[in-house]
Amino acid sequence: MRPFTYERPVNVQAAVAAASHLAKPLVPPTQSPAQFIGGGTNLADYMKLGVAQPERLVDLNGLDDAGLRRIQVDDKRIVFGALVRMSDAAAHEEVRRRCPLVAESLVLAASGQIRNMATLGGNVLQRTRCEYFRETSWACNKREPGSGCAAMDGFNRQHAVLGGSDQCIATYHGDFAQALIALDASVVVEGQHGSRKIAFADLHRLPGDTPNIETVLGPADIIVAIEVPLGPWSGRSRYLKIRDRESYAFALASAAVALDMDGGTVRHARIALGGVATVPWRAKKAEEALLGKVLNEGAAHAAAEAAFADARPREHNAFKIPLGKSTLVRALLETRDMKV
Amino acid sequence: MNEAAPAPKENMGAPLPRVDARLKVTGQAPYPADFAAANVAYGVLATSTIARGSIRALHLDRARAVPGVLDIISAGDVGSIDKPKFGNTGASSIGPLHDTKIFHDGQIIALVVADTFEAAEEAAMLIRADYAEETPSASFDSKGAETEAAAGKSPMFKEDVKAGDFDAAFEAAAVKIDQKYSTPTQHHNPIELFSTTAMWQGDQLTVHEPCQNVTGWKVELARQLKIDPANVRIISSYVGGAFGSKGPMTARTAIVALAARRVGRPVRCVVSRMQSFGTQTYRAETRHRIRMGADRNGKISAFGHEGWEVTSRPDPYVVGGTSATGRMYDYGSVLTHVSIVHADRNTPGYMRSPPETPYVYALENAMDEMAVALGMDPVEFRRVNEPKKEPIGGRPFSSRSLLKCYDQAAEAFGWSRRDAAVGSMRDGDWLVGMGCATAIYPSSVAPCAARIRLTDDGQVRVQCGSHEIGTGVRTVAAQMAAERLAVDIDKVSVEMGDSALPPAPVSGGSISTASVCSAVLKAADAVRAKLFAAAVAEGGPLSGSGNEKLDMQDGKVVAAGGKSAAIADVFKSMQVGAIEEYAEFAPKGSTGQALKKLYAGQPEFHGGEEDKDSVKYAFGAEFVEVRINSYTREIRVPRIVGAFAAGRIMNTRTARSQLMGGMIWGISHALHEATEIDQRHARYVNRDLQDYLVPVNADIKKVDVILVPEVDMEVNPAGVKGLGELGNVGTAAAIASAVYHATGKRIRDLPIRIENLLV
To answer: How large is the ipTM?
Structure first.
């Protein structure tokens, strides 16, 4: 690990100032000399591995704004403060009752120890665990722009089949983000120019030619809140995560599903896919395929086909296409059958 | 069933809790890297990022500039120390700093020593190497990999076993299969990281390192450092998981000792999880071809087993499990052949049941296929082929309780409720499958020494240079001493894990309980003999009683007539405060050199397949149920039952724990574990516990262990067959069998994963 300085500002303005002080033009936040730290479950790991080498750590845990640690639920929305720990959000009675998808996406992620530490704001900004990104001796365009992509023709069983580019096929591994993008959530951001709201669907960037630029955030931007609108689909929602072992593993494929049903017919569907794409992945074509349809196996399969129509496999991850489809089919049928 | 402390049956010892249980769960057991060394400096390794070639230049300037850096040892700096040797004690012949050649990914290229761990780590990350890179061979199918016959290349594998005319019998067989199987690369990944702490006091060197062979290491480390073994002490009081990985000494130990001498301070080097993949040993990938022929009644007439194993360029590491598979059933004819394939990889090494895990997996998966081909119940198929004698040398088994194991496990599992039709059992959206397989492990033993001291207050101290690697050997050694000397276990203390103690063999090959208990038994009996002689001597408390009729009960010497004398009274008559006896045990049939070799750190390993009069194995039968989701095909194991017979069971609690842990590892072997290799670069890709998957608690539901009573006094004086490596043999085949039963898909390449089962 490289030496770094550490500070613990007491309010958001001071935190923004501490980071903007070191921010450099054209350097994306992930490579900025100043890094915000929440739970540290991702950043501290990458610092130890030499993947992240910040000069300054700006610790957000001392921020005095109580809203950062609060969960507010009313009939229209859930608002999570960004410093709420994953475990607290997952265990929140109202969250579990009103929108099971959100709670399930959290409780099926990581391990109990990590969920106790990790913050929701940090969670959505977690970086890929691509093996070739994690270890600094491999070529990686995301870690070292222009160095190449060792995963493209290497061992790529866990890599993305959707949203990849010639430069990068690293999977976005998060689970919570799939719930957020499916539910049309947004994030509230504080930065050098004040406060703004960003649709969650606009937060992450496809890798394209610049896989090192992962979000639309600037180096001094802090996510302070996450807003999840509630609607007729919220109660009938779930997260299905398929993985190599029962717990403490990233998704090989996952599906976030919320349905508004009129009897057996789909009035409105919201679908996102995890473990298969480079960014949080909304499956709009699958949603459209279900509109007004009676949700049976056939309709579910048709939606799954639509979801993966553009999938591009590499040598070891082709199985994610049939697996991703089956996962979505199963998730749709199980969500349909929920007793709400 | 499934009790932590099963009630002992015939020939089984009490389920006493481990003597070090409290220390371990409260974090007070001192592991080697916990030892508080004064003024310690920290060593961090730098390792190669190519697998084949040489170092053209090593750039150390930036590393040296890090404040706190004391020294950097790199190629050419190892001065006069000798290169490691490949063998039972040495992991590899590669001396990573003896020249600039790179033999494998992750090879040590430098050791940085600094005042703090952080400075050493930072400096190690700043080292840059310019390589002259050559295209490496990663594995079996790589260009440049060199295949050779294994027999005779290593003392561990002398010959390809065979019997009868395989070709003719296979040709003539009514029903036959000819299939290929494979097992992946695996790394042990003990939770305790590898570490070395070396400290000099004048010319005396003490090394704290997790180790399964303190005596062997003492001698080998002294050889490399060119010093007298009497000046070297290896201490390894507790080991946080070993599984074979801490058996052979790696090159790091001597390099850290050298660094400590150079900086004039103790040096501690803890190897990171990632670096352990390249600097330690591992289980290499294997391939198998099995040909089997039988008549229509299921009687096997021909068994052919060919195996291929990867090893490093310079070292002929081989496991050669055909010596066990070739003797498993009544085959009629046997033909085997093992090859090793040299690639640009680090040298593999022992990993829990090194030969049996991969080879018996292949055999047992083939047995299940054959049973299907014959339309027979797989248990019945094994019953039909149960041998009276082993087919290679025609020797009897010293004991063989395999069918009893099958009967008891099948009963507990509910095998009779299995519908044999493939895909016939379902529970909602889940396909249910049931399968079974045989476990086998040779019952070996080795020379061992032990010292026992009994004091007049009834306290017993047992000293033996064996190793507590989590098996419970401290506890069973204490039980053996307590039983012979008739004292409460609380009065027995056991010292182990120190080369200054009486020498014991490597804690590998499941020999420790048998070897250590045989030596402790001998030492305890010598103490008894002294007490008895004194008790009946003139002036002794039992003067006049016959010596030959004495026994010990409840801390007393007891005569046949019921007269007894407290230990303290016997001591009083002897006018001594302590009796101390040193015993050397050598197995029946040992050579005249056996004890000399024990002290030289090269004990004769008396293998269960070596005796003329009989072969000696422990057996077990494992039954599993799998559930596979009909949509998404993930595989789960809700329950597993294993029944095992292994001679005398010293302690039903620790035995169950070993067997349960083995079966859990077997589940891991079947469904989870694999070290992935980037075939272009011959480099390991998933070098951490995030991507190197092992089961988590949520994966392990119901694990039942049945201990089947068995008496076998032919194996060794203690009557003990080792069982530490028995439980994980066969499990993967049982799971493959269950997966076939659920889905109709025969998976022959491990691990079995979702992608193998997607429609």
So the answer is: 0.96
